[in-house]
């Protein structure tokens, strides 16, 4: 799926101004992550990028973990939008929507690798100060809704959700790091997405004895 230009971080950024300093610092952190990776993220660099005093972040975050949690929360929103847009473009059936969710998952990883690492590399305790709303637009709720039609009667929904999540997350983490022989993938079509996602056809079915 070609990467849509309007799904870039820059297009999702809020205005950088001192009246909205907290968001300015979060967006500065996202820019640093996208350019130089998680190891480059510091409070001082975020302040400099936002054009404010190096002491300014202390008024909005409880140290670097608090800033990382705020960035991760924002990244989940970007992640959700990728999945929803891909699902809308894939088709109307339950199968098409599920494949679309998975396609958007992979494309997010390709387009925002540092944010993918932040979301899934951060200690979940760092998100405690930045709770993520689990409403219909949250990343996991999107996955849950897409899996719901495939949950057999009498089966816990988490069983199917974890099957799908394990498949698409494992594929994404391996693919974006070049483990499938493409050392610089930029699009979902660069790898065996369709072949691997064919396993989704068995989601919700009982294993053979």
From TrEMBL:
Residues 19-79 form the HTH tetR-type domain. One of its GO terms (molecular function) is transcription cis-regulatory region binding. Pfam families: TetR_C_33, TetR_N. Residues 42-61 bind DNA. PANTHER family: HTH-TYPE TRANSCRIPTIONAL REGULATOR RUTR, TETR-FAMILY REGULATORY PROTEIN. It comes from Shimia haliotis. Signal peptide: none annotated. Keywords: DNA-binding, Transcription, Transcription regulation. PROSITE patterns: HTH_TETR_2. It comes from the Bacteria. InterPro entries: Homeodomain-like_sf, HTH-type_TetR-like_transc_reg, HTH_TetR, MT1864/Rv1816-like_C, Tet_transcr_reg_TetR-rel_C_sf. The keyword Lipid metabolism does not apply. This is Transcriptional regulator, TetR family.
């Amino acid at each position: 799926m070609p990467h849509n230009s309007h799904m870039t971080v820059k297009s999702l950024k809020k205005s950088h101004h001192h009246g909205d300093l907290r968001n300015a610092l979060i967006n500065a952190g996202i820019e640093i992550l996208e350019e130089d990776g998680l190891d480059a993220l510091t409070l001082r660099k975020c302040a400099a990028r936002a054009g404010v005093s190096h002491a300014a972040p202390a008024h909005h975050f409880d140290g670097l973990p608090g800033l990382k949690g705020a960035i991760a929360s924002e990244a989940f929103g970007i992640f959700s939008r990728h999945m929803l847009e891909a699902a809308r473009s894939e088709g109307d059936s339950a199968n098409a929507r599920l494949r679309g969710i998975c396609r958007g998952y992979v494309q997010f990883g390709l387009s925002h690798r540092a944010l993918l690492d932040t979301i899934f590399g951060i200690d979940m305790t760092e998100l405690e100060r930045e709770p993520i709303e689990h409403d219909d637009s949250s990343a996991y709720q999107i996955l849950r809704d897409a899996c719901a039609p495939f949950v057999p009667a009498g089966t816990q929904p988490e069983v199917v959700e974890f099957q799908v999540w394990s498949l698409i997350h494992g594929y994404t983490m391996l693919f974006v790091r070049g483990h499938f022989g493409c050392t610089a993938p930029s699009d979902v079509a660069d790898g065996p997405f369709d072949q691997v996602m064919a396993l989704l056809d068995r989601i919700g079915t009982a294993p053979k004895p």
